[in-house]
TrEMBL record:
Keywords: Transferase. InterPro entries: Glycerophosphate_synth, TagF_C, Teichoic_Acid_Biosynth. Pfam families: Glyphos_transf (PF04464). GO terms for cellular component: membrane. It comes from Levilactobacillus suantsaiihabitans. This is CDP-glycerol glycerophosphotransferase family protein. The keyword Transferase applies. Signal peptide: none annotated. Gene3D superfamilies: 3.40.50.12580. GO terms for molecular function: CDP-glycerol glycerophosphotransferase activity. The lineage of its organism: Bacteria, Bacillati, Bacillota, Bacilli, Lactobacillales. PANTHER family: TEICHOIC ACID GLYCEROL-PHOSPHATE PRIMASE.
Amino acid sequence: MKEIYLWLVRLMSLLWAGRRQKDVIYLLSFADNLPFIQALAAKLPAGHRLVVFYRPKCQAAAANLAAAGITVRPFEDNLAFVLTGIPQIMRARLLFCDNYYAFLGGLYHPRRMRIVQLWHAAGAIKRFGWDDPTTAQRSASDQRRFQAVYDQFDEYVVGAPAMGQVFATSYRVPLSRMQVLGYPRSDRLQDASWVNATQQRIWQQVPALKGHRVILYAPTYRDGVTFTPPAGLAAALRQDPTARVVVKLHPALATTADELQRQLGPQGVAAPELSTTELLTVAETLVTDYSSVAFDYSLLPNAHSLLFYLFDLPAYRQDPGVQADLLDWLPGPVMTTNDQLAAAIQADAVTELTQFNQHWNRANDGHATERVVARYVAQLSD
């Protein structure tokens, strides 16, 4: 079925090849890059149009863009998208992608179309692409489909050479395709007005957090949306009796989050209406594992202690795997037991993040949006 779908994408894109390419298309599956999209729309030369194709889960973000006068269209991988979406995408001079989109593997790529990957994370702890051990177990046809998508990207926008190397290795693409411009979505993390406004809004919405040390527990999304916290985790998280603890798990794990919140007792504070990124702005301590939130948190002025609690590291090394040099650049020791985590929370020591940021956030300096918009708007006149 996947092969047939990609064949249909190929056919439709060939039928619409040769049309005038003046549009800018943004494929949206993460809702945290809206300021960049709006900045891009504001800088487009006359005669060019921005269209955002969004996944249904980003409906609220799309509504915000529509209110700003930007054309938005929902899309899923189905026949309707082949018949109505592909013709519009074939009019693109620039095609921005914030994720892996399978249909790209079948898309005819005109010479004048520039396809740009704007990944949704500033760094990588877990492996992906060819570096994921499970990829080798997939069928030859699956592997061809994966590589066909990876090869479509003309350029990859990254925040540091380290992430460029990860893409080059994981996707088997030339290092020359990497553009160290910084991630636009990271700009707000160094925007004092945005950080302050977010903090004030959180304290108004969740007053129980104000005036306390906030410990945020935000582990990574796991394929299959399965996650079982180890027994005793709640006791470790509440080692500072004056702190308040917020748990942020994948939305599909609401029952697990509720149970962990219950075990935290009065120190646990529920904040389901707030995003993880918002909560990072009030967290004095972030406890995570393989999640990319670590790379965002390290840019914030309130970042005090960043703790890596990898209780399932032996199993995770096997599937999906972690970066081979992980222990070389982590800004602190790996914790695998509740006792180690409890001791670190009690100690409340400052995590030195300078070298970590130099490795992963070198170009994430608060001005990435300006550079990315300037580079690609200039290409519209090539």
